[in-house]
Every structure is written in C-alpha cells, then in structure tokens.
User: Which sequence fits this backbone?
C-alpha cells in the first residue's frame, strides 16, 4: 500500500497531496512527460537507438527548468523490484535492471506502461485494461490492488497469440474489418475468464475500433500521466 508521506531528500517529509510528480511515459516512438502541478506536455523522440541512459539524459535536458519531488514512470515491458525485468522490443539495449532512482537522483516508482494507464483510468471495482498498440498491453485492478498482466502472448488460435490478432500485426495483415471482429472476440473471452466489472480499451489503435464492445469504455492516452501522478498521490492503491 502506498504511504501518505514521502521524504524526497534531506528534510521534512512531504504529504502526498503536496508532492509534485513528474510522470514519464516511455514509448517506442516518443518519451513524454508532464508535471502534476500543471503545464503542458513535453516529449522527445525515442526509437531503437534509445538506451535507458539516453532516456534519462534526454528527460533531464527537456525538464531542466521544471521543479518536482518524485517521478512515476511507465515502462514498455515487465517490471520487477522497481526496475525493468527485460529489455523492451522497440527501444535500445541497457534497460533491464536499470536503476532510475540513482540515475535521476529522485525517488522513482516504475510500473509497466499499461499499468500506468490503467491506474489513470481506474474508477473502482474490478477493471481490466487493454492497450491496443504495436502489441497488446494488459493490466487489471481489483478493489485498488494493481496486477500487471501479460495476456498478449497467451495462445489464441492457429498457433498464434492474442497479440497476433489484435495488435498492429493483426490489423495490417487482416485489415480493419477482420481486426475489429478479432478485438470483439478477444474482449468477450477475457470478459468471461476474468469477470471484470468493466473494461477500458486504450492505446494508439483504439480510435480505429469504431463502436466499442459491450461493457467497454474508451481509454485516453493522457490517462497515462494521471496514472503516473496517482502512483504517488493515491494512498488507496496497492502496487
């Protein structure tokens, strides 16, 4: 459970309400950041040459005039013990095991990027989040307990996975009409298996769905930043 006070450095602890959080959303094409205290979003291009060290240097450069206490990061891969547990697919090397707290010199809470957007989308109860992008991001939150998931690589049919049908590859290979039907079928199967009260569908390709399947809500990409803020500010969350 998240505690209500944080000591970012030497001195008196700051209450969660007063913390200024820098939320960082790490993506395959851009790294984006925003402050909980307000203001606009800033970003830098990422891509296959961006290592963890390069990301830290880039973010430090474009936020050099910002003041913040702590950092919440959404990482495109599995996370263990507040560090990346594997290298990302669409970025450079040097991410696995990287210590972001030491690199930034600030307290950091790191979660999978789908989880960060899920936290920003959460409105209570049992919620399943699905991110339709290059692959299939997934996370579940049940009564404030945050559970990262890796549903993308589960076997689906024809020796393929869920991601093969509803990720970018499926959209390009099968066309939008068949892709939409696949999304509806996958959502129906996951609804039956996991029994969420509601499903939030986000990611870059959600706009291509048209009508959402039953019991689904539209997720906004900007919710990733809200999730980054809530990592530090929502004392009810259990990570």
Assistant:
């Amino acid at each position: 459970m998240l505690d209500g006070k944080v000591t970012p450095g030497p001195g008196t602890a700051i209450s969660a309400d007063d913390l200024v959080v820098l939320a960082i959303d790490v993506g395959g094409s851009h790294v984006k950041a925003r402050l909980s205290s307000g203001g606009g979003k800033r970003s830098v291009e990422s891509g296959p040459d961006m290592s963890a060290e390069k990301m830290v240097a880039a973010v430090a450069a474009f936020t050099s005039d910002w003041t913040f206490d702590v950092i919440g990061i959404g990482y495109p891969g599995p996370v263990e013990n507040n560090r990346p547990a594997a290298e990302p697919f669409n970025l450079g090397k040097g991410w696995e095991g990287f210590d972001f707290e030491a690199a930034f010199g600030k307290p950091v809470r790191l979660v999978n990027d789908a989880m960060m957007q899920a936290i920003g989308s959460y409105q209570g109860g049992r919620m399943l989040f699905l991110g339709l992008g290059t692959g299939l991001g997934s996370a579940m939150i049940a009564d404030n307990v945050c559970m990262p998931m890796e549903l993308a690589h589960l076997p689906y049919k024809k020796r393929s996975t869920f991601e093969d049908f509803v990720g970018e590859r499926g959209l390009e290979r099968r066309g939008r009409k068949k892709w939409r039907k696949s999304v509806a079928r996958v959502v129906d199967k996951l609804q039956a298996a996991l029994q969420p009260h509601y499903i939030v569908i986000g990611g870059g390709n959600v706009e291509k769905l048209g009508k959402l399947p039953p019991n689904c809500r539209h997720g906004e990409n900007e919710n990733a930043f809200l999730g980054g803020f809530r990592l530090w500010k929502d004392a009810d969350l259990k990570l």
Summary: Residues 168-194 form the longest helix (27 residues).
